[in-house]
Design goal:
The protein has six helices and four strands, in the order E-E-H-H-H-H-E-H-H-E. The chain is mainly α. The protein has one domain: Hypothetical Protein Ta1238, Chain: A (Up-down Bundle). The strands form two sheets. Strands 1-2 form a two-stranded antiparallel sheet. A two-stranded antiparallel ribbon has the order 3-4. The longest helix has 26 residues.
């Protein structure tokens, strides 16, 4: 199978389950931002090893791949299949919340806004957080056009909070303080 098909040369792309849309369609924007988030998380994992963070991020990358597939699927029944494959349910949201709580237990209380930065790992996590927020906005926009499972927005919302906390943890563990705004 060749990587180039030439089918998108006119500015459209194929969706899972059939159909073609312009490459700037809101659906393509949404799953494209989720794909970008997944790539940025890959950059985070490529930074100096931090098993507590990296192991968690690997499972999140798997989730995001499934979320992207779900968003690329206009057929609701197939969407539900992708959702079940992703194990994206309330229990998974609770896992993210427990990870946030675990980070919070190891950190000083936040008393002001902080500027993104610090260690390379923390800076990359802050970047991932901002891409996550953009992906969340795009998914909300898509959700206005077509019904989507609520868990997708909830997952992205929780994930951005987790990425923020992981950035704080990476800074604390890496010996870099936080810079207050």
């Amino acid at each position: 199978m060749k990587i180039y098909t030439k089918t998108g040369d006119a500015g459209d792309t194929g969706l899972f389950g059939g159909g073609r849309v312009p490459k700037d369609d809101v659906r393509v924007e949404a799953y494209g931002d989720v794909d970008e988030l997944n790539a940025v998380i890959g950059v985070v994992r490529a930074q100096a090893p931090f098993p507590r963070i990296d192991d968690l991020l690997l499972s999140i990358q798997r989730d995001l791949f499934s979320v992207g597939a779900l968003l690329a699927t206009p057929d609701r029944a197939k969407m539900e299949q992708h959702l079940s494959k992703a194990n994206l349910d309330s229990a998974r949201i609770s896992e993210l919340e427990r990870a946030i709580d675990s980070c919070e237990a190891d950190l000083d209380p936040l008393k002001s806004f902080i500027l993104p930065g610090g260690t390379e790992k923390a800076a990359a996590l802050h970047f991932a957080r901002t891409v996550c927020r953009r992906a969340e906005r795009r998914v909300v926009t898509l959700g206005r056009e077509t019904p989507l499972p609520d868990l997708v927005v909830i997952y992205l919302n929780r994930l951005s909070d987790l990425l923020f906390m992981l950035a704080r943890l990476a800074n604390k563990t890496g010996g870099s303080g936080e810079v207050a705004w």
